[in-house]
Design a protein that fits this description.
Blueprint: H1 8-12, H2 17-75, H3 79-89, H4 95-111, H5 115-126, H6 133-147, H7 153-160, H8 171-184, H9 188-199, H10 206-218, H11 226-232
Helix pairs in contact: 2-3, 4-5, 5-6, 7-8, 8-9, 9-10
């Protein structure tokens, strides 16, 4: 524990004890009430911070329980029961629960083939600066996937190219969409190169790598994924 420095020593070298008492008394007369008010205000503010921290924790706990009930209802196909609490969570001030609710709403709309509605939910996540970037990137991919047939291929490429690079956690998902967009733009050489990279990247999910191998193969490119390399050995 740090030792509080003795600030009186320098002061005592300049004034005697009597003068110091007079100065302190004068200071208290002038500023005592203001000092008390400042202390009270500071304590009130500190108490307010503690309350809001407690309130925030309580709110997060309650919303976590509500989200679990929503997932249980959806799993049991009780979609009508899940709708109202899901709508409430989608407007939550807690970014994580808001994102989870919006993703869930988007997935439910996809099941109904409501691509436009689903894209709007994912777009809301992608455009929310208070939500973590990895989730926003995933939402952008989901949005683009839902809108894919209605988008010009250059829009897909420009939107997802920053994510369709090796080292990106979404390389496989984003790269697949960008690769197909390249094919629609009549740029098979770019598509083949990208699918080849996806096929050889062990961090990409197996299902996506297998599709990459097959698509590259249809273009005459011998893209061999990690699984095939091991079999060959």
């Amino acid at each position: 524990m740090a030792v509080t420095p003795n600030t009186d020593e320098a002061f005592l070298r300049e004034v005697d004890e009597e003068l110091r008492r007079d100065q302190l008394a004068s200071m208290w007369t002038r500023y005592g009430r203001w000092l008390i008010a400042a202390i009270v205000a500071g304590l009130a503010a500190f108490g307010g911070v503690l309350y809001w921290q407690y309130h925030g924790e309580q709110t997060a706990s309650e919303q976590g329980e509500k989200l679990q009930v929503v997932f249980d209802d959806i799993g049991a196909q009780n979609l009508a029961e899940a709708k109202k609490p899901l709508d409430e969570l989608a407007a939550s001030k807690v970014a994580g629960y808001r994102a989870s609710a919006l993703f869930t709403q988007g997935d439910l709309l996809l099941e109904k083939q409501d691509l436009k509605g689903a894209a709007a939910k994912f777009a809301a996540i992608a455009g929310d600066a208070s939500i973590g970037q990895p989730l926003r990137d995933l939402a952008l991919i989901r949005q683009t996937s839902a809108e894919f047939d209605a988008l010009k291929p250059d829009v897909v490429v420009n939107r997802l190219r920053p994510l369709a690079v090796k080292g990106s956690p979404w390389f496989g998902s984003a790269g697949e969409l960008v690769g197909v967009a390249y094919l629609r733009m009549n740029k098979p050489e770019l598509a083949a190169s990208l699918f080849g990279q996806i096929a050889s990247d062990e961090t990409v999910p197996e299902s996506i790598r297998q599709r990459a191998v097959q698509i590259a193969g249809t273009m005459g490119v011998d893209a061999v994924g990690p699984a095939e390399e091991k079999k060959a050995q």
